[in-house]
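Hi there,

I know you've been waiting on this one. I reran it after we fixed the sequence typo, so this is the corrected version. Both the input and the resulting structure follow.
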Amino acid sequence: MTQASKLLFLLLVFTSLCGCGKDYVTGKSSYNWFSLDTDVKLGSQVLQAQEGSFKKENISIDSEKNRDMLLRIKKIVERVRKVSHIPDLPYEVHLADAPVVNAWAAPGGKMMVYEGLWDPEKGLVKKDSDEELAAVLSHEIAHCTARHVTEAISQQVTIGLVGVAVSSAIAGAGSAAGANLFDQVFTQGMNIYVPSYSRKNEAEADKIGLFYMAKAGYDPRAAVELWKRAAEKKGDSTSIYASHPSNGERAKALEKYLPQAMEIYEAGQKNSSSL
């Protein structure tokens, strides 16, 4: 990142600092120094960095070969967006022709899905299952609405260091606050960006996402089964499996909320069938 870019980030940060922010999920105050507008700007920087990296490696994004799959993903995002806690974020999802078993969401609703997510051998999601795709995408949208990245930056650095931390993080090299940001990983001949959220944030996104998909009309049981399957598989640090312990604790935690989520889902099914 150039010196000019760093100065721009410092200006952006310090003009948007607002003390305690709002937790849009709980409705309570939260320790977040950033505005939603800043979330969107930071997310755009992450997305641009990934797009620029893939362009150098001749890896296509939103290619014609994946046109139908991208349309399905966008429809799912649209349905989940409407029932999320921040439906008016400028959500944006892209599909990369990269054999990486993962998907991520950056601040402000920017999302990237790698086609390796449904690879027949190494993948996690069944390609023909909208429910399983919805489980992953709802989880990612939950990271956006819970504002996990900017909340983490706010909690881990002092006000005076926020601008520096953001500049480093969005440049892709990580920072002192990198435990909850994005890492740039060189793997399989490409530079990819992968999230490294804390266990607490992952668990919160699991729970929020479960209810999002249920409200959007997707069977929440698919999420529990999906994360059980993730716990049984292994992959490198770039894969979605890295954040799912082999003991299946994340799936077990979700099972506690499944009865409530099923009530929401079944009520929605009844209402839609009566129309």
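Quick highlight: The beta strands are 21-22, 29-30, 92-96, 103-105, 110-114, 182-187, 190-195.

Best,
R. S.
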